[in-house]
Amino acid sequence: MPSLTHASRPAAALDRVLRDERRIWRGREMARVPARATGFAALDACLPGGGWPVGALTEIVPACDGLGELSLVLPALRSLCEAGRAVALVNPPYTPYAPALAKAGLSLDSLLWVHAVRDEEGRWAAEQLLREGAAAVLLWSSAREERALRRLQLAAEAGRACAFLYRRRPEGRPQGRIEPSPAALRVALYPAEGGLRVELVKIRGAPASQVALPLGGSFARRCGACCG
Amino acid sequence: MSLLLPHLPIEARPAGTADPAAVTDGAGAHRRLIACNEPALRAGISAGMDVPSALMRVPMLRLLPRSQADERRALHALAGWAQQFTATVSVDLLRWTLWLEIGASLGYFGGLDALRSAIDAGLAQLGYTARTGIAPTPEAAALLAAHPEVPAVLTLKALRARLSPLALTHLAVDARTLKALQASGIRTCGELLQLPPPALARRFGAALPQYLRRLLGEESDPRPRHTVPEAYRRRCGLPEPVDALEALLFPLRRLLLELEGWLRGRDAALQRLTVTLAHRSMPDTQLELITSSPQREAVRLFALLREKLERTMLHEPVSELRIAATELVAPQALQGDFFDDRARRQHDWSALLDKLRARLGSEAVRRLGLRDDHRPEHAWCIRTEDDRPPANEGGSNEGGSYPDRPDSPDRPLWLLEPTPIARLPKLFGAPERIEAGWWAGEDTSRDYYVARTPEGARWWIYRDGRTGKWFLQGLWA
Asked: N or C: which end of chain A has fewer CB within 10 A?
């Protein structure tokens, strides 16, 4: 069959091109970026590098307070604390409750709580911490300007740290529609039965997706079967 | 080594301005300029001018009356600073000169050239113009400081030959003697040194031959050693009251650089520094800097104080600046070269926390601790101790690493001030009863529940045993 051999030649060439990974970008493949495991296998599988981006800004936009927004990052923070690295909470909206944090395995010595009166001071503190030694900084800020977020992104890059920016979902906007930002990763959080629905609205280097996470820990234990 | 500060009267009064300024001495018709700053020099003003001719050249020239107190303070502070290079420093206030005995320091600082450039760089940073002379005797060093063209003389043997060609002008003799010497046809030091000492003594008094013997090292020339006070205090008057931050920073920087030199000389560091801004009529403004680890680098102290100053309201211009360091501590191995990586990280980290505290206030940077109390709002605390992890001391339960207590109760991550609830959300599970605090006059009996709002928020709420009312106290974030 002459036509078959004829057709196999371009196919072989195409194969060669496809095998050369540097020359082609596959939409479903994820870029290799420095990352830190989130502690949730299902979430790691969706993220480039297999975890929270290191040296980059992650935005977390919960639908409301108290649906697991902190539990989401606790496993990563715990592994940082175990490695003796410092973690800072800057301007959290409520008192971080030491007994619960300690029970979750965080070393209170590694944990810093910074309380700045004004939002821009909080952002400044977060930047300094990111640049100069904290392994992860969780910042609660109402800042919307792209410039402010870019500064955080740059500080995280400079300090090779994880920056988590918690923002409130703007009132009256459709779900998932948030202004543009320089963050490498943006996740929106929604309540789900037995846990949390994590919508990966924007991922640098991977397609957007969503994943449901069971949240174990204290709440689940207290709820018992009702919730799970 | 001799350091001559030809512009001391003006440089002792740091203004940090670019306007031409000069210091005057004397009164009435004898009032003359004794020193002027760089801008004035460029405008053609020089020391020795009388006031009218100076003002004719530069009508805007700022004239400051001489302050010998400021000169004395400046020179003594400089002597303290110089003790990082040698333990033996002496001061000659009238001649605006410092002597440093550097023979023993040469090896440590890596030779004469290295030491000299370290001193020159330090002086320039402080904002002083200095001429240095190096010779085996103090007087010869002072003479060479006035003759920058003559290289350092290192041995007594070479001294006479090197001094001989120099003119008499800069010898440390009074003006009348100098005039008389010149009138008798003596023009160089060599010619003077050849004259028989008894004849010189008869003609000019015993002081002159003694000076010449000391110049050549034929007679010992003991000088009072600048002694190191136990605590560091330095004040610096400002020529004019200042209310702009920038104008304060210049003198502040100098004070801190002097302090750094002084601390190095004592091999000490500090953790507490008091800066006082004095005003004309209002009470002083005091700034207290407390650092979490021993510090002495001026750059770092300056950055911290600058943050503090930027947040300080000045109700009146500042007329004087004072710094005081009364508690000294041993420096940790904090000098650049000897750092190991971990120590450096710790050092940088505490420097960072200092920076945060300086700008946000010391209560803004917190660490959490645990307390043994069943009442949820009392089971935690803010720790106020230093930034290093606390040593494992028994007793206090405020430690950082949580005692392994798997049986410790489940608690939410966010704690709130108890807030009354209008509409009770859906409850889950069995209640946890907490009764504690009756001994503190705070009789509490509460039934805690976990609950879930229609929005999906997970609450930690309780019903007050006495009133039956519901409160929100935590969020399962």
From this structure: N
**Residue numbers of the domain that contains B468:** 414-475
* Helix, strand, coil tally for chain A in percent (to 5): 35, 25, 40
Q: Let me know: does A59 contact A181? Beta carbons within 8 Å.
A: yes
| Residue A225 touches chain B, beta carbons under 8 Å | no
SS3 content of chain B, % helix, strand, coil (to 5): 35, 25, 40
| Tokens matching residue B286 | 């005091």
pLDDT per residue over B61-92, tens digit each?
A: 888 888 888 899 999 999 999 999 998 899 99
Looking at beta carbons, which residues of chain B come within 8 Å of A222?
410, 428-429, 450
The reported pTM is: 0.57
* Residue B71 domain-assigned (yes or no): no
Residue B337 in this model has a pLDDT that exceeds 50: no
Nearest CA in chain A to B448: A222
Please count the other Cβ atoms lying within 10 Å of the Cβ belonging to residue B4.
Answer: 23
A57 to chain B, closest Cα gap in Å: 21
| Interface probe with B: pick from A91, A108, A123, most Cβ of B within 10 Å | A108
Q: Where are the domains of chain A?
A: 29-169+180-222
Q: Tell which CATH classification among 3.40.50.450, 3.40.50.720, 3.90.550.10, 3.40.50.300 matches the domain A29-169+180-222.
A: 3.40.50.300
Q: What is the mean pLDDT of residues B370-375?
A: 86
Q: What DSSP element (H or E) covers B385?
A: none
pLDDT tens, position by position, A123-179: 999 999 999 889 999 999 988 888 889 999 999 999 999 999 999 876 655 554 556
Q: Is residue B56 in some structural domain? A: no
Please check whether residue A66 touches B, CB under 8 A.
yes
Question: Which residue on chain B is closest to A101 by alpha carbon?
Answer: B413
Within a domain: residue B103? Answer: no
**Alpha-carbon distances, residue A181 vs A42, A77, A93, A171, A178 (angstroms):** 25, 24, 22, 18, 9
Give buried/exposed letters for A137-169 (b at 16+ CB in 10 A, else e).
Answer: bbbbbebeeeebbebbbbbbbebebbbbbbbeb
Q: Which two tokens stand for residue B357?
A: 């505290």
Query: Which residue in the block uniquely carries the two structure tokens 């920056």?
Result: A163
Angle between helix axes B207-216 and B156-163 (nearest 10 degrees) is 120
Least confident stretch, A54-58, B97-101, B250-254, B312-316:
B312-316
Q: For residue range B460-475, what is the model confidence (pLDDT) as tens digits? A: 999 988 888 999 999 9
Look at residue B331 and tell me if it is in a domain: yes
Our measurement of the distance from residue B348's CA atom to the centroid of its chain's CA atoms, rounded to an integer in Å, reads 19
Count of structural domains, chain B: 2
